[in-house]
Amino acid sequence: MLRDLTIQNYRCFNNFHIDGLAQVNLFVGMNNVGKTTLLEAVYLITNHGNPIYLFGVMINRGEVNIKDSNISTDSSLLKIKYKYPIYRLFYKNQTTEEKKIIIQSSSTKKIIIQVAEVHNAQFSSNNPTIDERDLDLETELSRKCLAVLYDNKSYNPFPISSDGFSHQNFYKKSILHLPSSSSESIWVTNELTEVRDLARLWDKIILTPKEDKVIEALQTLAPNIQRLSFTSNQNFYSDILLKVEGKTEPLPLSSMGEGMGRILNLAMAAVTVENGFLLVDEIETGLYYESQTDMWRLMLEIAQQLNIQIFATTHSWDCICAFQEALDELDDPSMGKLFRLSRKGEEIRPVEYDSEKLGVAVRQSIEVR
Question: Is pLDDT at 103 greater than 90 in this prediction?
């Protein structure tokens, strides 16, 4: 579990530090104050700085351009060549060698990310994401690369052109925000997970207590839901079927509203990342305010039972009130905290609200967002 986090020279953070992190953490603050950036830093450090996840967060932000795409030789994967604006990762877009991105916590190893000069020979064929035939002349002449180190061990460097872009081939399958044997965290974005990926996760938990937790999550929105199943198509949310009490025929999940798909994503992610980290941007998305307290009760319960640390963001006062209400019902409300991120000059600082302070703020309608 992360108890503290330091972020230097990463996006909007010049020199940011937060401590006193709890098992469940909710972050609020004005737009462009770094809430999503903080989640990215947690995502990177809990996945050991693997560059796949670094490029993944850039795709998630819509920061990349697609240069080319084609079907791989085995005709099963779409091979996409992306153009990544590496300079945007750095504070004030400064990519000189002395400007290193550093992400670290007292409970994990340190990540260092920097743009450095290297010999072309270092762009070796051992790097599975680089095809030397795809290096254009501008990239070859720039002799720069993106270097990523974790625990002082370097991943293979990624070549960068003189305008600060990295041109990389990735298979679409490689950048899904889904847990794997090497992933310790999962990111739930505003976009719903593809149905075939949910089906793959469902196969791992079916007929286990985790299945019951997913059904319980759906019941926070519709108490008469009894079972869930996937059709063989697995292309759309209409291919997820629900057994509903009093109905002779199953209903497609898509007919139950956006919130049902959202809560399914949250629950599936939570039960899948046992002993890991769950990251949720704008956790209230798609959920009616009256259901948000039940959602928080469930998230707190799953976090306790499966030893998960949760990092979430919100803009919603209703979501904050629901979080406080759910915390107040716990025997140990210290397992959850709210942090408000705010700017002081060019720096961003966290303001901590434990359950007691948050309760006062909610009861007196003190603005904390």
Answer: yes
Q: Give the number of other Cβ atoms within 10 Å of residue 99's Cβ.
A: 15
Q: What is the pTM of this model?
A: 0.89
Residue type, 1: M
How far lies 155's CA from each of 88, 108, 124, 175, 186, in Å? 20, 17, 11, 17, 21
| Site of tokens 């020979």 | 121
Residue partners of 179: CB distance under 8 A and separation at least 6? 185, 186, 272, 273, 276
Average of per-residue pLDDT across 26-31 = 97
- Identify whether the C-beta of residue 281 lies closer than 8 Å to the C-beta of residue 189: yes
The residue to which tokens 């080319």 are assigned: 68
Grade residue 218 by pLDDT with cuts at 50, 70 and 90. Answer: very high
Of the candidates 202, 307, 217, 195, the residue with the CA atom closest to the CA atom of residue 267: 217
Contact 195, 287 (CB under 8 A): no
pLDDT at 125: 39
For the stretch 308-325, pLDDT in tens is 999 999 999 999 999 999
Residue 16 pLDDT more than 60? Answer: yes
Between 135 and 331, whose confidence is greater? 331
The two tokens of residue 195 are 């149905």
Rounded to whole angstroms, the Cα distance separating 234 from 1 reads: 35
* Alpha-carbon span 188 to 98, nearest angstrom: 34
